[in-house]
């Protein structure tokens, strides 16, 4: 009899341990658009020889080519990471085989996750759009906005309001988005008690951080606070969108300032994981922009001297940093589509 009671107790405690181990894992994917290794290197030296990326336990490299070009654009690489398929440059959420795969954000919602998208571009721009839209061309902003308006995104912060309320079809999607509380500031976002909240940071594309845009880390903290309130597992994608734009214009101050804004947001996420260790953080880029090199520099001042080799993107592999549960699976060299597969494995654990 004693043995039976002992066995029952043992079974109970084992079950609870197993249940604890299977607690769902939060996933935070952070994409520095155009953030190649030299953008990180230059940003790190300009920032007193340090970056939040040094705290990551696992580093890998991702191949970024699209299905029709060694040099990808943000739509094809965004789709690869969001949905695990290669596609043509310019295409969002539709594979080269004309399939419309579900994104990791959509799959996480089906598993009871809360979801969020934050970008320092418009929310309909190629990178964030890859997580909820399926369109032949990234330029179909109004169509992308329409798909956003009925998406499973719980919280979003980004620009591009005009694609929702100043449209060719005269629809006002903001009025149609009745399940959302669309707020005009981050403090209103913080105060909102709604279960779905959106904040348009700009009518068009948001300003540069150099021109006084609010820090990305503030938006990240506001959304993390909502996740804490909800007490559910979550998937969030955070994009440092304008590192790419600094690369396109070959302006190193633009690149560095946007990198630093993104780096500070990474630090905010890492601070959050201290109290929420059940969170996987993955930081990567969709591609490199500008062909940035650092042929010389000043060791005394730790100041890099940089050169750009193109106003476009390059085919360079990009680093993938991971920390938290399953971080070790992100080491090695692999296709950017596997970033999706590795996150999916975590969702299916
Ligand atoms: Mg982007
Ligand atoms: Zn670009």
What features would you describe in this structure?
It is a single chain. This protein has 349 residues and is of the alpha/beta class. It has a domain at 56-156 and 216-306 and 318-347: Alkaline Phosphatase, subunit A (3-Layer(aba) Sandwich). It is 37% helix and 21% strand. The chain has a 10-stranded mixed beta sheet, with helices on both faces. Strands 9-12 form a two-stranded antiparallel ribbon. Strand 10 and strand 11 (303-307) form a beta hairpin. Helix 3 (74-83) packs parallel to helix 13 and helix 10 packs parallel to helix 12. The radius of gyration is 21 Å and the shape is globular. The model is unreliable at 8-20 (pLDDT under 50). Zinc ion binds at residues 34, 74, 244, 248, 289, 313.
What's a concise summary of this model?
With 349 residues, the protein is α/β, with parallel strands linked by helices.
Total E-strand runs: 14
Mean pLDDT: 95
Q: What is the CATH class name of the domain at 56-156 and 216-306 and 318-347?
A: Alpha Beta
In the sheet with the most strands, the strands line up as 5-6-4-3-7-1-8-13-2-14
Question: Structural class of the secondary structure composition?
Answer: alpha/beta
End-to-end separation in angstroms reads 37 Å
Number of helices: 13
Fraction of helical residues: 25-40%
Report the major sheet: 10 strands, mixed
The helix/strand order is: HEHEHHEHHEHHEHEHEHHEEEEEEEH
CATH topology of the domain at 56-156 and 216-306 and 318-347: Alkaline Phosphatase, subunit A
Looking at the overall shape, the CATH architecture of the domain at 56-156 and 216-306 and 318-347 is 3-Layer(aba) Sandwich
3D shape: globular
Ligand set = magnesium ion, zinc ion
- CATH homology superfamily of the domain at 56-156 and 216-306 and 318-347: Alkaline Phosphatase, subunit A
Radius of gyration: 21 Å
Instruction: Tell me the β content.
Output: 15-25%
Stretches where pLDDT is under 50 for at least 5 consecutive residues are 8-20
């Amino acid at each position: 009899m004693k043995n039976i009671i002992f066995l029952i107790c043992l079974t109970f405690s084992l079950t609870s341990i197993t249940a604890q181990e299977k607690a769902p894992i939060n996933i935070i994917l952070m994409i520095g658009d155009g953030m190649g290794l030299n953008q990180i290197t230059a940003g790190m030296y300009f920032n007193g020889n340090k970056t939040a990326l040094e705290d990551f336990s696992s580093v890998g490299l991702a191949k970024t080519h699209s299905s029709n070009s060694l040099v990808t654009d943000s739509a094809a690489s965004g789709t690869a990471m969001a949905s695990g398929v290669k596609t043509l440059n310019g295409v969002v959420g539709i594979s080269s085989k004309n399939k419309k795969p579900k994104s990791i954000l959509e799959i996480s919602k089906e598993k009871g996750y809360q979801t969020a998208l934050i970008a320092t571009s418009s929310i309909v721009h190629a990178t964030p759009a890859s997580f909820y839209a399926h369109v032949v061309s990234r330029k179909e902003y109004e169509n992308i906005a329409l798909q956003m308006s009925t998406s499973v995104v719980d919280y979003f912060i980004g620009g591009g309001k005009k694609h929702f309320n100043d449209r060719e079809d005269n629809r006002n999607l903001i009025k149609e988005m009745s399940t959302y509380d669309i707020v005009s500031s981050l403090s209103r976002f913080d105060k909102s008690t709604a279960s779905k909240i959106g904040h348009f940071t700009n009518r068009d594309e948001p300003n540069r951080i150099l021109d006084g845009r609010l820090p990305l880390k503030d938006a990240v903290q506001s959304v993390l606070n909502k996740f804490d309130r909800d007490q559910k597992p979550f998937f969030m994608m955070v994009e440092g969108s304008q590192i790419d734009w600094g690369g396109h214009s070959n302006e190193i101050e633009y690149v560095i300032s946007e990198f630093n804004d993104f780096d500070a947001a990474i630090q905010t996420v890492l601070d959050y994981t201290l109290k929420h260790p059940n969170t996987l953080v993955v930081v990567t880029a969709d591609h490199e922009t500008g062909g940035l090199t650092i042929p010389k520099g000043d060791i005394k001042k730790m100041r890099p001297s940089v050169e750009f080799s193109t106003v476009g993107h390059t085919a360079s592999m990009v680093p993938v940093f991971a920390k938290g549960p399953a971080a070790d699976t992100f080491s090695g060299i692999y296709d950017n589509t596997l970033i999706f597969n590795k996150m999916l494995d975590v969702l299916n654990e």
